[in-house]
Structure formats: structure tokens, C-alpha cells
Target: Transporter
Amino acid sequence: MVSSVINEYSYDEKNVNEKSKIKIESESKNAGVMKKLLLGLGFWVQGFRCFPWMGVIFYLKDGLRVDPSTIQILQNSANLPMIAKPFYGIVSDSFYIFGQHRIPYIAIGAFLQAVAWISIALSSTSVSFFTITMFLLLGNLGASIVEVANDAIVAETGTSKNFKSSSAGELQSFVWMAGSIGGVVGNLVGGIAIDKFSPKLMFFAYGVLLSIQFLITVCVHESSLHLPSCSANNGIRKQLSELLAALSKPEIFYSIAWLAISYAAIPSLTGTMFFYQTQQLYIESSVLGLSKVVGQAAMLLWGIVYNQRLKKVPSRKLLSAIQVVMAIFMLSDFLFVKGVYRMMGLPDSLYVVVVSGVLEILIFFKILPFTVMMSKLCPLGCEGSLMAFLTSVIALAMMVSGYLGVALASYVQVTGNNFSGLPYGLVIQAACTLLPLIWTSWVHDDKEPHTKSKEN
Model:
């Protein structure tokens, strides 16, 4: 009798355990779906930012008659809020809002962006260059906050106890592809809209899209995402000390330093090339839009290829290869400007669509493998601040690159109407691209053992 009771009790306990296990697995699966939906929307909307920015470039060029150097300075200066990303990351890691420390910041960032773009859309026709700049800074401030929170969720997923090593890099690839799809759609629609609608209508449409993102985000509670739990309200000082402790690790510090040099050392000539294509070659805006679509499609393809084929390739080897390919494409631009391809019968528009489109986006290829590597090295508890520091370093390096590009264009005497010195500038740019290869030993070797633990 006693034996049968014990057996029945054991059977009931086993049943309860199995039901609990099924319930936990179901909740975990639902959390994964919700997380992908939230991050997919967030990265897609941020990728779609190219849509209003295409309108900004043409609005400044044709509406306000701004010269190429000023446009490039504005494009880079508008990224100033990106430099403060570590601060946003530390704040989101340290302070919870209504018991949440990621979702509220995504909502705040979406709201600030919506206000900025709708304000530009509703501004008078005599709006000043300074006012436009201030609104663009506000928009990029909101974008920075959103990106920090989204990146932190991705990093936290990578450090979760339930995160399978076989899935390493899959979420990064997913959000990368979501952003790329947003870029493809944004550039494709933007290339068409710029010829049919006013730039201000494009700004308003993007502001409405951001408003929708804001409303969806505030309806999601962070508990549904099953993020790793950590102590709330750690305080900025403690979080800052944890960030400094993480940066003191040689594998993190030297890797980030190399990435910064690999961006900052290359003088960017994107503004100059834009004017060359539109003023000298008379390339239509729809062709430029298609070129950007090809670039974003290349980013999407890169995310798929990396996730399927290249995750196991050492980061040092992969980053070096990307740097070499960039230099080759820049030398191809030299031949393009010299008219070599034209003499071979290749139309300028075809080159702009395919090669220029890929080159413009190729510089971002390094980010995916690098963030995957950083998410593995990132200590628990400072995902937001470390990933924010990384993206701010990239933003600062690209600003330096943009300013160096303005200086290089001035040095080779390129103006809005004179592009005779552009080929020499492209050769210098390609040479600078190869310089960081000297320091590739700074990049962490994935084969080296490392531990991921909470710093005390």
C-alpha cells in the first residue's frame, strides 16, 4: 500500500516536472519570438533612416544650395550624439524606468526622432541651415538612444545562460539583415520618392513611421523578453567602473583600438563622389537610389553569408580581408573617374549602381563579425555600456574620416565644379585603407581562450 502511494506520488511529481519544463520552454520560445519582433522592427526602422536622409542631401544641395564640403561636414557633425553613446549605455544599464531598462529607452529614442523629423517637415520654407542642423542632431540623438538599447538586448541575449553556443551570431545576423532590409526598402522608395514628392513629405512620412514604432514599443513589457536579470539601479559610478574594467582587458581594448584606426585612417570622399556623379556625370537621383539599394542588398547578403559560412572564420583574418577588398574597390573608383571603364564600353550609370553601391556600404561589413566577437568577450552586466562605447568609437572614427576627406578634397583641389584632382585623392584613400593591416595583430584571436564573467 505504502509502495503504491509512493509510486503514485513519484508519477505525479514527474508529471508536474514535465509540465513545468514544457511551460518554461513555451515561455522561452514566445520570448524569443517577441524579442525578434521588437528587434526586427527597431533595426528595420533604423535601416530605413536612409529614406529621409536621401531627402536631406537633395534638400541641402538643390534647396539651400549648400556646397559639397559643407554637406559632408554636416553629415558627419550630425553624428555628434553618437559619440555620447557610452553615457546612454551606462544610464540604461544603471537606471530602470518602471522596472525596465531597455524598452523605455527605445520608446524615448523613437519619440525624439519622430519630433525631429516631423518638425523639419512642418517648418517654413525659409528655415535656416542652423535650424535644420539642430533638428538633425535631435533626430540622431534619438537614433543613438534606440541603437544603444537594441544593441544591449542583442548583447544580453548572447550572455544569457540559456544562450546556446551553436546559436552564436544568429541574433546579430538577424538584426543585421533586418536593418539591411530596411535600408533596401528605404533607398528603393527614396530613389522614387525624391523625383515625385518634396523632401519635406519624405521627412513627415518617416516621422509617422517612428510614431508607430513608439506606440508599439510602449505596449511591450520587458518581462516578456526574458532578458538576463541583474541588479537594478547600480549607479553610474559602479557601471562606469565595470565599463573601465572591461576596457582594461587587452583583448577588448586593442581590438576596439584597431577598429577605430581602420575607420579613422580612411579619408571619406562620399560627399565629393556624390557631387561628381550628379554635377559632372549628371546621374539621375533614381539611379543613385538604385545604387544604394544594391548596397543594402549586399549588406543583407553579407549577413546571410556570414551566418551560414563565415562564423567560424577567425575575426582577425576576416577583418583584414574586408580591408583589402575595400582598397581594391577604391582603386576601381580611380579607374572609373579616369574614364577607363567608359572607354571599355561600360556605362557610368551601371558602374554607379553596382560598384559604387557596394563600395559605399562595404565599410560597414566589418561591424557584424566585430560585434559578434565583442558579444562573446563582453562581461555580464555591462552589455549596454560596452556595446554603446564600441558604436560611439565607430561614430567618432567615421567623423574623423569625414573631416579628413574634406581636407583631402581641399588638398587635391576638388570643388563642386572641378574634379580634376579626384583620381589622386582616390589613390591616397586606397593607400590609407591598407595602413591598418600593419596592426592586425591587435585584433583578438578567436582561438584564444576567454571567460565571460561578472566583474566584481
Summary: Residues 13 and 19 are 10 Å apart (CA to CA). DSSP finds 19 helices and no strands in the chain.
